[in-house]
Amino acid sequence: MALSDLRGDLHVHTKASDGHNTIEEMARAAQAQGLDYIAITDHSRRLSVAHGLDPQQLLRQIDEIDRINASFAGITILKGIEVDILEDGSLDLPDTVLQHLDLVIAAVHSKLDLPRKRQTERLLRALDQRYVHILAHPTGRLLGVREPSDIDMLRIMRKAKKRHVSLELNAQPERLDLDETLCQMAREEGVLVSIDSDAHSIGDFANLQYGVGQARRGWLEPENVLNTRDLKTMLALLNAGRHPSR
Q1: Tens digits of per-residue pLDDT, 184-199?
Q2: If you placed Cys at 43, which of 47, 167, 173, 216 could pair as Cys (CB 3.0 to 4.6 Å)?
């Protein structure tokens, strides 16, 4: 697994929430990094400290991305969101909005200290949500600051495989979540991993190198990683098993 194997980054923030740059600036920086596609995944409204987007703001951003893609060459910008997983496992935004996106990253940002059974059930319910494609920084750890949440990760991975949901390897140096043991477990369980920068500024695409290093420690190969694929193949994998009746 090498940095050059990555074709895209599926977790990118802009100044619309808690990032520091515009969509265009992030796209140009990703293109300079050699990427073919990125997903704009600003926070949803529940994370008010990060100026999360409400449904109307997200719909306006969707229109903005469509306009930018129409005039941008060399890289594709996907429409996404990092939506909060609420305590009961539901999501912070309704399906009527999420259905307009190319991908949805679901994440826990609150009550990370719930008991093991409750935290596990919370994530299992989130994985059952129709439009969830990727589970972000699954254990919630912050190195030297916060321990991982107590979760039955084997149950989570098996549900993720069943629901065709990928698990993120968040490449921020303070996260590196999944850790190397969980990367190896994901490989053994046949769950795809998405190596993402969680970029909040144009310089943060450099985080990808740390994610690749973590993937190597967990014995991940390019075929185990979602975003080593070209855009068409990646989107097909992202939407595998999803249909109107789900």
Answers
A1: 999 999 999 999 999 9
A2: 47
Q: Is residue 81 part of a domain?
A: yes
User: Is position 188 within any domain?
Assistant: yes
Whether 243 is covered by a domain: the verdict is: no
Domains: count for the chain: 1
Rounded to 5 degrees, what angle do the CA atoms 112, 151, 208 make? Answer: 75
CATH of the domain at 119: 3.20.20.140
* Residue 234 backbone phi and psi in degrees, to 5: -60, -45
Domain that holds residue 35: 3-238
Residue 245 covered by a domain: no
Task: State the Cα–Cα distance between residues 14 and 176, nearest whole angstrom.
Answer: 21
- Element holding 20 (H helix, E strand): none
pLDDT, mean of residues 1-15? 97
Q: What is the mean pLDDT of residues 24-51?
A: 88
Region of 94 please: left (phi>0), alpha (psi -120 to 50) or beta: beta
User: What does the pLDDT look like over 14-37, one tens digit per residue?
Assistant: 999 889 999 999 999 999 999 999
Q: Do the beta carbons of residue 155 and residue 127 sit within 8 Å?
A: no
d(CA 105, CA 82) in angstroms, rounded, equals 5
Query: Is 181 exposed, middle or buried (CB count within 10 Å of its CB: 0-12, 13-18, 19+)?
Result: exposed
